[in-house]
Amino acid sequence: MRLYFPIFTALVLSSCCDRKPYPFLDPEPLEVPEPAAKFELKTATLLDEALPSGNPHFLPVTEKIYALLNKEEAPLEAYTETVPKAQGVAFDLVPIQGGSFKLGGEKDVKIEPFWMAKTETTWALYRAFMENGKSRNKDGTLNIDGDIYSSDPPLASSPELLDAISQPTPPYMPMHFDMADSAGYGKDLPAIAMTQHAASKFCEWLSAQTGHYYRLPTEAEWEYACRAGTTTQFSFGDDESQLGEYAWYFENSDGSYQQVGQKKPNPWGLYDMHGNVCEWTLDSYRSDFSQHPAGSINPLSLSPQRYPRVTRGGHWDQEARELSSSARFASEESWKMTDPQQPKSIWYHTDTLWLGFRVVRPQQVPEVEEMHFLWNTGPGEL
Asked: Collapsing DSSP states into helix, strand and coil, what is residue 334?
């Protein structure tokens, strides 16, 4: 599907005497110029539907990141990535060869080659993004005018690119919820309770300092990698009695998430694809795959609405049947039930002690418009 990508020339700012909460989610009408250009997604087939706005006032940040990226097609080999702003913490990526499979056991689709993180994103990586030490507006821009409800120009107040990237406001409660024997933000525990928007912005932050393009996986990419060439209920077969060897779930988790990478990996070397924490994908939720064109390359469903979005893999507090390769769950507004703020944060889900993510890197680097669009499918409209 071809998209038209609007580029705004102005920002939405609210004055101190006439302020709406979160004006960036309910902007005043702007005069929008004609679309700059057409583009096609290179790494996914976008289904024909209403689309998110793409947060166009952050495009200048994406353009600066794009200029730094290595755009040559790299050999599809395993490698280790080091993250400078996370005190040099490293994580491993597994190459995923392209191929075809039945998405949800229903629809034949094709997947292009990509890399996927061997484990779920850990606190060792995510805390450097979450606890960024900057005064930020509610939308994650640096706070210039002292009003946290206004959106400031992303590049206006700092020469540092990583400062200009939209990042979370400080968490208003410990996001580890004292789990894992009160280990707190244990470095090998999976980061949890972030929104899909926050996970995508982490991918942007990660890309800016590594020179490699990272994003969330599409639902199709996630299931393809989880199945690892299998057609059974789980990546190891159909015998639920073996699940404890591969996954943390209700029967063995002791009521908590666990350190990543302790169980057996799937046939392609990916850990915790079943259980431990549910994992965000890019997609908006549809009840089935009937509208996905057969034979499409990496189909992607998007929506301007914040809910529902798709999570995969099941988690530590679920039964075995909910951890299958095709199991999928839809996000809900209730995931923010105990958030004390009004309006509620676009960065945190206070009621999801079991929700995380892992990153992917497509072998083919897309153009800047697509890159920006897939980092900015949120926060979405209520």
From this structure: helix
